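Section: protein folds

Sequence with per-residue tokens
===
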Amino acid sequence: MASLEAAAENERILREIESTDTNCIGPTLRSVYDGQEHGHFMEKLEGRIRNHDRDIEKMCNFHYQGFVDSITELLKVRGEAQKLKSQVTDTNSKLQDAGKELVNSMEELKQCRLQQRNIAATVDKLSLCLPVLEMYNKLQEQMQARRHYPALKTLEQLELIYLPRANQYRFCKIMSENIPKLRSEIKDLSMSDLKDFLESIRKHSEKIGETAMKQAQQQRSLDSIVSNQQRAGSARRARKEAGLGTELEGDSSSPMSEQDSGILDVEDEEDEEVLGAQDLVDFSPVYRCLHIYTVLGARDTFENYYRKQRRKQARLVLQPHSNMHETLEGYRKYFNQIVGFFVVEDHILHTDAGLGEPAYETKLWDLALSKTIAALRTHSSYCTDPNLVLDLKNLIVLFADTLQGYGFPVNQLFDMLLEIRDQYSEILLKKWTVVFRQILDQDNYSPIPVVSEEVYRKTAGQFPFQDPELEKLPFPKKFPFSEFVPKVYSQLKEFIYACLKFSEDLHLSSTEIDDMIRKSTNLLLARTLSNCLQNVIKRRNVGLTELVQIIINTTHLEQSCRYLEEFITNITNVPPETVQATKLYGTSTFKDARHTAEEEIYTNLNQKIDQFLQLADYDWMAAQGSCEPSDYLSDLIAFLYSTFTVFTHLPGKVAQTACMSACKHLSTSLLQLLLESEVKQISMGALQQFNIDVKECERFARSGPVPGFQGDTLLLAFIDLRQLLDLFIQWDWSTYLADYGRPTCKYLRVNPNTALALLEKMKDTSRKNNMFAQFRKNERDKQKLIDTVVKQLRSLINAHHS
């Protein structure tokens, strides 16, 4: 039973081996080797192999003839195969020889295809990198060309667009790392350009200001020409309508005509083109820097820095030089710098609203205005030349008009000009003080001689004088006044012109100009001219002839004041009847000078009389007087005659007053001569001589040296002396003592004190005249009478005092 199972198992294995692929026979054989029937299986396997060999032999025997035929055919095929092999070998060698070039070409093609792929890849990579490099190169070129704002834009494109496309490359990473440095470099370079710009405008401020002021001057000249043409046209129409013809058109002596010619000259000189601020300074750096800082988010930093630097520059510009007041160029340079500074500010304000703020500019202008006004007040106070002050005023007006044209308020400058106007008036007054002194010192104080009609018309043209009687007289003839009258009158007009020049272009009304001119002229008359006249009148070496001529001159100058009024009215077009019009004080000025001269004449005449009286040499102890007046008195009377002859041109009251004053002073001085303390004794002979001198004085008074006295009015000057002498010579004491105090007293003008003093001197003379007089009865009686009169006089004096 076991052998049957083993035989069945071996049979199964054999069938499995026969039917199974040799690759999978391993497990089957393993099962054989693992079993106990290995030898039996081998026997079975040998038997099966023998069976298959018998089957193969049978089949071979069955197909043997076909096999032989196949072998025969195979042998035949072998020969042909050999031939074919040789042919194939030959063909292969030929093919190999022919294929070498192809292989080489294929290798080359392979290399070309490889290069083409590499080139394509390189082109692709370069298409990413080249824009980056181009933009970076463009950035470098822009930075080298100092085009910082485009460089900043290029850097922004490089960072945001081109570098992200090629960020895998190392050089792009390096570029990315350098971008902050480049931004900082652009920022620093733009700031450097801004500093250069600030330095440039600081250097060019003066030139910019000069250019702006030239433009303003040209515009003002054109406006003045147009307005003058309009005024001239309207004036001509008005004159034509009024029928005045060309009579007034020929009058070109007004200062306005001079001003017109000056304007035309300025226009001719400055006809060339004037550059503007933008033509002198390149403003692009400040805008580039502003845009760069704006893009970088640092606009506030830029604005603060810019304004801080401009404020520093403003302080430098507003600081005047210490010697600015010495020349007009100093002021001009100062104004040019200020105008240039604010022209730049105005240009920036109106080209970029963000950088120049109106509030900032207004604050800066207020600072500049206050400092400018303070500097002008300080430096103008040092000016003593009226021409320099006038040029300074014109420069300030041009300065104000220039800045006003740019929209800056300049009212404070015109207010300050009114202050300078007062200073200008004071300087003019000082200048005219010198002018008047020179005129008065150089004058000969003699009437102006006229030898021809031409000289007469020339003098009459300088001074408004009309005298029909003088015109009828033949040549040569004389004006009543001396040369200082037309010269002073001309200088008064020159002073008015000088005042008018300062008031031009100050935007003042005609009434204000008229008031200013009149006030200044009043100061000139009441202070300057008056002081000069007073000094001339009161100086030591002035003579009576000069004083008389001064009175005549001041009389004519006083009469000319109304012509000065008309002159001022004509140049200001303000009628004198205007309520606000200031009146000239010329009348009172010349009246005061004339009164002073009159007083000086009286004083001078009295001093001359005193000088003659000092020559008096009386013999007070003379026994009897001579029949002729004293020599000194004769000379004095002759002097008075010649002096009062000169007084014929004076007003009547002045001559009469001078004559009366001289006679009174002579009478008083003669009386004082009698009563002098040094004269201890007076004889009757001396008194008689003195009486003869007094009679000579009375004869002079009675002769009427000056016309206009009624009756013996001039004799009243000697009445005190006459009554005193009559009392002593006639020895009429009884009448004097009896009628003393009555209105009808013969010796009403004799003072008892005067009589007592003179009597005391005669009493002493009577006592000492003769040692034996006490033994003569007549002398003793006379002495007793003198003593009695002395006692009675003392009684009268005591009674009068009580």
User: Anything to note?
Assistant: The two ends are 218 Å apart (CA to CA).
